[in-house]
Design a protein that fits this description.
Elements lengths: L3 H13 L23 E5 L2 E4 L4 E3 L3 H4 L8 H13 L9 H12 L5 E5 L2 H15 L4 E5 L6 H4 L30 E3 L5 H11 L1 E6 L11 H12 L2 E6 L12 H4 L5 E4 L10 E5 L1 H4 L15 H16 L9
Parallel strand pairs: 5-6, 5-7, 7-8, 8-9
Antiparallel strand pairs: 1-2, 2-3, 4-10, 9-10
Helix pairs in contact: 3-11, 4-11
The structure holds pyridoxal-5'-phosphate.
The site of pyridoxal-5'-phosphate has 13 residues, from helix 5.
Length: 324
């Protein structure tokens, strides 16, 4: 099979883009060094075609973004209509309000939402809002949450700290040393470890993935919820990966444990950039006391794609536990 075009372009790319690509998981070296096709020319349903025209079955689902299949006709139609009418203006797009209302509808414990394009951004926003609500600024976390300083700073103490949290050996050059001892990882399903961490490290925020490869055992999530209530800790569920995948909204709904804030991304926009941060009103209102703003968070296509995806999820009843 000829895959030369992609291989050559990737090799060239490494001379003008650090690391060859902006998403770590799409680096050829992680998959099939010197043989990986690297780039797609088109995509449809579960297939992608490389630059040489070879067709592949893609089980990776674009890092989990495209559960309705690539280049879904209905999502594309909605987004195309939006593009025709205008994607960006000096005014807001009303879809932002409708999306907030729609996501809150599925999460009755929450009453406000904010949006970003990327999941790392959404995590940074969530931590900023949570920190603005509590004097205890230290974060305990479990799972992968993105590229930002607050997360990577956990590796300043030991480069192995993040090894059990999806990606190992992450470099942290450029993170100020002053952030050392402000965020602390904890292993999944070990409640006693978390309890000890909280007693020792003045933790005000717990940020975690609800579930990834293993299920919660022995009422793990319920115990964390109770601990947060007792110690006045803000509990954030990062559902960038799990949200809108198993059921309509966060997978925490299926486990019957509500956080104080939650984050959704990936599947929400069916491959278009949109992430949501939702939360309780008294917490989310604090976002008004700290500057959180970005030009392209106003882009209309992400909101359109998310609204269209939710419509589609409902229509094809793709979630057995749908609350709709
Ligand atoms: C749980 C979780 N949080 C955050 C992120 C970061 O999202 P993004 O890659 O869109 O910045 C990811 C991405 O894999 C994720 O799985």
């Amino acid at each position: 099979m000829k895959t030369k075009k992609g291989i050559n372009l990737y090799n060239y790319s490494k001379t003008i883009i650090p690391g060859g690509t902006t998403l770590f998981s799409k680096r050829s070296e992680l998959h099939l060094p010197d043989k990986w096709p690297a780039y797609f020319s088109k995509a449809s349903k579960t297939n992608v075609w490389d630059l040489n025209g070879n067709k592949y079955l893609d089980m990776f689902c674009a890092v989990g973004t495209s559960i309705l299949g690539y280049s879904n006709d209905r999502i594309n139609k909605s987004v195309s209509n939006t593009i025709k009418k205008g994607n960006m203006t000096s005014l807001n797009c009303s879809e932002e309000v409708y999306l907030s209302k729609e996501i809150i509808k599925y999460h009755p414990w929450a009453s406000m939402a904010k949006f970003t394009r990327g999941g790392g951004e959404a995590n940074a926003v969530a931590i900023r809002i949570a920190r603005s609500c509590t004097k205890k600024k230290n974060v305990a976390f479990c799972g992968y949450h993105g590229w930002h300083d607050w997360y990577l700073s956990a590796n300043i103490n030991s480069k192995k700290n993040l090894d059990q949290h999806l990606m190992s050996g992450l470099n942290y050059e450029g993170i100020p040393n002053e952030l050392k001892n402000t965020s602390f990882p904890f292993p999944y399903n070990d409640f006693q470890y978390l309890k000890r961490l909280i007693d020792r490290k003045n933790i005000g925020i717990i940020k975690m993935e609800v579930v990834r490869n293993i299920k919660p055992l022995n009422n793990y999530l319920q115990k964390i919820r109770r601990l947060c209530n007792k110690k006045k800790i803000i509990l954030i569920f990062d559902e960038c990966t799990t949200g809108f995948r198993q059921n309509m909204g966060g997978v925490h709904l299926a486990f019957n444990v509500n956080p104080d804030m939650a984050i959704f991304g990936k599947a929400l926009g069916s491959g278009f950039a949109i992430n949501a941060i939702i939360g309780k009103k008294k917490i989310m209102k604090k976002a008004e006391n700290t500057f959180i703003s970005s030009t392209f968070w106003g882009e209309r296509i992400g909101y359109t794609a998310a609204l269209s995806s939710i419509r589609e999820f409902k229509k094809i009843k793709c979630f057995p536990k749908s609350r709709s």
